[in-house]
């Protein structure tokens, strides 16, 4: 899990922020990624290929390395071994200033600024970076709020919003920078099942409207099965299986069966 040290979105200065082009879904390739902390292996020889425009979820029990994998993808952690390529570019070797892709992350805590309005939160980065004139910023904010079903809510205060609305504002704020890759860390944490379903629909609608690649880390199995093109299950720092939701549901791998059983019955046990 990511700590609250970071806002729920960010784009490092070095990742081409001044390039405010339309988003393009990027491919992601992870090759032989391994990471240990204090001699304890957390990720072991991870290989993953995620296609441009894909909605890809990484599921698995708590403490199995999902968030550490996500942190590698955004360059917050350096691997001990292995490579990550985004649109063919080795992000560990690249001159970050020359990177052409943009990414943003929606962290578990929406981390919105309560003292600002919805519109001010969504437009914060655009105004701070002076990406375009104020009139254009207002139009972009309205467009991003519409994408998450919150059109016309610019003047609302964050304190007036439900948990689900806050999450959608956090997504709109991430979208404000036109990311090519958007990453979600436990997006349904703290949401009730109905609000989680609504959020899944928002993310699915985004896929239809915006050309971006989506990576979701979650232990919410039904959420992942509902909205993902493909899912990787990670256990003990290793990828156990990669497949479509149907392939995951029908997997005969005992580790997957156990995870499915535990998550559908809410109790531990063998299938
Ligand atoms: N910076 C770090 N230093 C040392 N150990 C770490 C660090 N970051 C993560 N870990 C350890 O790596 C393991 C995997 O953590 P991670 O947060 O990736 O789990 P997770 O699968 O995302 O679980 P959860 O769903 O509970 O967040 C944990 O045992 C965690 O304590």
UniProtKB/TrEMBL annotation:
InterPro entries (alphabetical): AAA+_ATPase (IPR003593), ABC_transporter-like_ATP-bd (IPR003439), ABC_transporter-like_CS (IPR017871), P-loop_NTPase (IPR027417)
Residues of the ABC transporter domain: 28-261
Keywords: ATP-binding, Nucleotide-binding, Transport
CDD domains xref list: ABC_Org_Solvent_Resistant
Keyword match Transmembrane: no
Name assigned to this protein: ABC transporter ATP-binding protein
SUPFAM superfamilies: P-loop containing nucleoside triphosphate hydrolases
Coiled-coil ranges from the UniProt annotation: none
Transport keyword on record: yes
Molecular function terms from GO: ATP binding; ATP hydrolysis activity
